[in-house]
Amino acid sequence: MKIVFCGGGTAGHVTPNIALINTLKGEKFYIGTDAMEKQLTQPLVDSKQLQYFTITASKFERKFTLKNLLLPFRLIRSVSQSKKILKQISPDVVFSKGGYVGLPVVIAAHMLKIPAVIHESDSSMGLANKLALPFCTKLLSTFPCHKKATVCGAIIRKQLYSGDKQKGLSQMKFDGKKPVLLFTGGSLGADTLNKLAQKCAPELSEKFDIFVLTGKGKTVSSKYLHHQPYSANIEDIFSATSIAVTRGGSNTLCELTALNIPFVVIPLEKCSRGEQKVNAQYFSQCHAGIALPDDCTPEQLTEAINTLYKNRKLYVSSQKQMRIDGTKEVAQQIECVAKSK
């Protein structure tokens, strides 16, 4: 079986593809830009598990800009590039995790009568997946986001389940005597969480060892916490974490839920289409965590963290009942579509 993966724009569009590449058997290929997708998949290319092909792709701006007027012409160019690559590979199926990088590949696959499967992570469909829907063979999703969607659950990386607690504590420079409180804000939403962590740390440090993943190019300054920009071994950090504070990205919320780490979720509202707020409400209603508004105060966050930790066993129990990991089912759906070609 030959499988072409695509999707990109953020790490959230790429890491689920990597999880499936490590799960599915057959010849595997990736079509993406010369940017984040290529960087994140490079280890798989180096180990010869994957062949990478490059196209150009342009992002739609959610505001009026002259660049958007050129998008139809740039999309035509991207589709043409994708068609040429797909003809060369002749895959059995194309899988897209969404993002503007995946759209031209799905359209090209449709034109060549190659079945395409897309997966939506959020509670509401992203723009690229909405545009790709008429051209795909099957829509899979984590949540019931569309009447045509087959709800399978989230795509979770296997290595997240094999974290080493002692390595995580060592990486964070903690001795394990206190429970670990993790702040992780991603990229766009990191600044707000970093500032909240600094303000809450003096009081919370009496009960918790506090660790902040600040995001690349960002930092915090406080004697009450430890920090680093990012972690190459996030599974070890997660293994040592008792509770977390995070943004409302679906991938992170699903990973924390799958690992039974209760969380306070503060959705990013200004720089998104509103999906993080919907995600936060969903997980809060399922009692996987506590949702706070984007403009919450340090006092509100401190209270929520203390409440979460006090009742953590109840939140863990609810997380287990969600059975969020749908990686195997997504893989099976892709294989079925490929075999029906």
Topology order in helix (H) and strand (E) letters: EHEHEHHEHEHEEHEHEEHEHEHEHHH
Question: What's the pLDDT, averaged over the residues?
Answer: 92
Q: What's the number of helices?
A: 14
Largest sheet, in brief, is:
7 strands, parallel
Radius of gyration: 20 Å
Proportion of helical residues: 40-55%
Percent range for β-strand residues: 15-25%
Tell me, what's the shape? elongated
> What is the count of β-strands?
13
Provide the structure class. Answer: alpha/beta
Low-confidence stretches: none
Strand order of the largest sheet: 3-2-1-4-5-6-7
Distance between the termini: 11 Å
SSE arrangement:
Elements: E1 2-6, H1 11-21, E2 27-32, H2 36-46, E3 51-54, H3 66-69, H4 71-89, E4 93-96, H5 103-111, E5 116-120, H6 127-132, E6 138-141, E7 149-151, H7 165-172, E8 180-184, H8 190-204, E9 209-213, E10 226-228, H9 234-239, E11 243-246, H10 250-258, E12 263-265, H11 275-285, E13 289-291, H12 298-310, H13 312-322, H14 327-339
Parallel strand pairs: 1-2, 1-4, 2-3, 4-5, 5-6, 6-7, 8-9, 8-11, 9-10, 11-12, 12-13
Helix pairs in contact: 1-2, 4-5, 8-12
